[in-house]
Write a structure and sequence with these properties.
The structure holds two protein chains of two kinds. Chain A contains 14 helices and no strands. Chain A has helices at 2-29, 35-40, 46-56, 62-74, 87-122, 127-141, 144-158, 174-208, 211-218, 223-235, 237-254, 256-261, 267-277, 280-308. The longest helix of chain A has 36 residues, at 87-122. The radius of gyration of chain A is 24 Å and the shape is globular. Chain B is an alpha/beta fold. Helix content of chain B is 31%, strand content 23%. Chain B has helices at residues 48-55, 82-88, 100-103, 110-119, 126-139, 145-148, 158-170, 188-205, 216-222, 240-245, 250-257, 323-329; strands at 4-17, 20-33, 37-41, 64-72, 75-76, 93-96, 176-180, 208-213, 225-230, 233-239, 307-308, 316-317, 331-332, 335-336. In chain B, the strands form three sheets. Chain B has an eight-stranded mixed beta sheet, sandwiched between helices. Chain B has a four-stranded antiparallel beta sheet with strand order 2-1-4-5, covered by helices on one side. In chain B, strands 13-14 form a two-stranded antiparallel sheet. The radius of gyration of chain B is 21 Å and the shape is globular. Classes of the chains: A mainly alpha, B alpha/beta. Chains A and B meet through helix 9 and helix 10 of A and helix 2 of B.
Chain lengths: 316, 344
């Protein structure tokens, strides 16, 4: 186990390094990229721009710039070019918002997907199964900005059931916190439920044909016991793997469209603004942040995998 | 010893497929009594596995059709409800499957799997059930049973896994034990051990055993009575001595003739029954073996009934040939086999 952790930690460091280099490198090749001009402002004189450039070190060789940037990131001092805010601090403030959005949505979609996927597998070809297939295709195809906008229009504007965007901190008012997040949770969950339940359904149908399920039935177990104790348990592996990656990406800010539409001040919203402004520091920190979660959650899902199936030994 | 546990009457099992109705089992009747071992022999596709799985209700699906009855101590299994079957499975009638690595759950410890079987029908604590499971594992010859109960199936060898299945099947002392080719996936030396286990344990518990196999050597070793199946039908039925020493059906001769004997000179070519088993979808009328039988004659176009042709009422066969003709046709150079012979 400790070797497993050591190997994963090492690959995390490598990945973070590679991510940072790639993101940094991308901006060096973008033609319109001129951070000094962006920081100095639109009406700045060339002299001011040159001064800014010197101050921030934009005139230095690229590897020096890279080194400086990384130093600033890891000492928590890096600031963004658009608003002069401390990037690490911004991430710290915004992370709870993203977590509030992503974690309950993830729980919602996994629970519903497992239930619906199981029901489909138990009665394949019937109405529920076919309905779910349609839902899955819709969920995968529909652009999230459209879904979010439609939800907002129908349930916050046309029918004033839910508030019209905004975020309330959990600490100040839990009820309002949830109230503001219900539509965003639905937006995120709706995209994944269809897909995950289809994956589970397919996995469960495969497992249901295996010999040991027949043995379980031959023991006199009820269909429910056979399904839950034998079929379901052996069908979870694929969705565990998928979930690890999806969840990691979402925590890193992949829900940026949802955050923007619903005006939730989370990491995704910050990253979206930064991309629009070609603001390198938040983008770099964001990419590394996401990379970190991806490594962490893929390691966790490997651990869960090994717990579910004793034939699997944890290797690096 | 004579108590009749299972009575199967005219069992028919068919599956609706895209190509038509597949008649997997047609008109099969037999009985199993306490303490006896009944072997069902036949080639792949003869309907032997479908027959025994139907007894446990494991062939039920939206496209399966059944007729006939199978009474276990008076209660019909074919028409029983799912609840009734759930009560019976594991408790009154239990099954050992062919391939123990795929038939045991890979994610559960073996002790837990036996415990699950016990607790499916008896309301006892997990600890008590585990003690019983360990004791059973010891009785089937698994050493260090208490430790091994915590192991997973993939940590056992094939023979040990099959012993686990046997322990599991016998845990509730069922009246009927079905073994569906339990030794096919094992090597010969282990096979002998497993057969001994099955024979000994079933003798101890006085269960009736149905043993499905395609291996005549196993049949000779373990069976009291033998049912020979072909194309979904019973073609011969008798005691093991009758089947081996006085077989009445040409298909049985073919089966016996294809066994290479250690005590004789090896043949130049391995004897085999020429041809293929018939399609079970559009089965031709008449004797199912007729296309491959060198002794077929015009009467064979009509399906022979399963009837005794000898004074011994227990020895039945489905062949129009007279006993005297059979005796003449079945042996060549002192060997029983299916050869081109003069048909009447």
């Amino acid at each position: 186990m400790s070797r497993f952790i050591a190997r994963r930690a090492f690959s995390a460091i490598l990945l973070l390094f590679a991510t940072s280099v790639v993101v940094f490198g991308i901006f060096e090749v973008i033609p319109s990229y001129n951070p000094a001009r962006a920081i100095a402002g639109r009406n700045a004189t060339p002299t001011t721009v040159a001064q800014v450039s010197e101050k921030f070190g934009f005139d230095k060789p690229i590897y020096v710039q890279y080194g400086n940037t990384m130093k600033l990131i890891f000492t928590g001092q890096i600031i963004d070019y658009s608003d002069n805010l401390n990037v690490v601090q911004q991430f710290g403030q915004r992370f709870p918002v993203t977590a509030s959005l992503v974690v309950p949505a993830a729980i919602l979609w996994m629970v519903v997907a497992i239930v619906l996927g199981s029901l489909s597998a138990l009665r394949p070809g019937r109405l529920m199964d076919r309905g779910l297939m349609v839902a899955a295709i819709v969920g995968v195809s529909i652009p999230v900005f459209l879904l979010a906008a439609v939800l907002l229009y129908l349930f916050a504007f046309k029918l004033p059931w839910f508030p019209n965007t905004g975020y309330t901190k959990f600490g100040s008012n839990p009820a309002q916190w949830a109230y503001h997040l219900i539509l965003p949770w639905i937006a995120i969950a709706a995209l994944s439920i269809g897909f995950y339940s289809r994956v589970l359904r397919s996995s469960a149908l495969d497992v249901a044909n295996q010999d040991f399920v027949r043995t379980a039935r031959a023991k006199g177990l009820s269909e429910r016991q056979v399904f839950v104790r034998h079929v379901l348990r052996n069908s979870l592996m694929p969705i565990v793997t998928l979930f690890g990656l999806d969840f990691a990406a979402l925590l890193g800010g992949a829900a940026l469209v949802t955050e923007t539409v619903f005006n939730l001040p989370g990491i995704g919203q910050y990253e979206a603004q930064a991309i629009g402004n070609l603001d390198v520091p938040p983008i770099m920190v964001g990419a590394m942040f996401t990379a970190f979660f991806v490594v962490l959650f893929s390691a966790l899902s490997d651990v869960v995998y090994a717990l579910l199936d004793p034939r699997i030994r944890l290797t690096g | 010893m004579d108590e009749q546990l299972l009575e199967v009457q005219d069992l028919e099992v068919a599956f609706a497929t895209e190509d038509g109705l597949v008649h997997a089992v047609s008109g099969v009747s037999f009985t199993v009594s306490r303490g006896e071992v009944v072997a069902i022999v036949g080639e792949s596709g003869s309907g032997k596995s479908v027959t025994v799985m139907t007894l446990m209700g494991l062939t039920r699906s939206p496209n399966s059709r059944f007729a006939g009855t199978a009474r276990l101590r008076g209660e019909d299994l074919v028409s029983a409800s799912e609840e009734q079957l759930e009560d019976i499975r594991g408790k009154e009638i239990a099954m050992i499957f062919q391939d123990p690595i795929s038939s045991l759950s890979p994610v559960q410890r073996v002790g837990a799997q036996i415990v699950e079987q016990i607790r499916a029908h008896e309301n006892i604590s997990k600890a008590a059930a585990l003690d019983r499971a360990i004791e059973l594992m010891g009785r089937v010859g698994i050493p260090n049973a208490r430790e091994r109960a915590r192991a997973y199936p993939h940590e056992f060898s094939g023979g040990m896994r099959q012993r686990v299945m046997i322990a599991m099947a016998l845990s509730l002392s069922p009246s009927v034990l079905i073994a569906d080719e339990p030794t096919t996936a094992l090597d010969v030396t282990i096979q002998a051990q497993i057969l001994d286990e099955i024979r000994q344990l079933s003798a101890e518990s006085d269960a009736g055993v149905i043993f499905v196999t395609h291996d005549l050597g196993v049949v000779a070793d373990i069976a009291d009575r033998v049912l020979v199946m072909y194309a979904g039908r019973l073609v011969e039925q008798g005691t093991v001595d009758e089947i081996f020493y006085d077989p009445q059906h040409p298909y049985t001769w073919g089966l016996l003739g294809s066994v290479t004997r250690v005590d004789r000179d090896p043949p130049r070519r391995l004897p085999a029954i020429p041809g293929q088993p018939p399609s079970l979808v559009r089965a031709p009328a008449g004797c199912p073996f007729q296309p491959r039988c060198p002794h077929a004659f015009d009467r064979c176009r009509e399906l022979p009934p399963l009837a005794p042709q000898l004074p011994d009422a227990g020895h039945l066969d489905r062949c129009w040939l007279k006993p005297s003709e059979k005796r003449a046709l079945r042996e060549t150079d002192g060997r029983i086999g299916l050869t081109e012979g003069a048909a009447s």
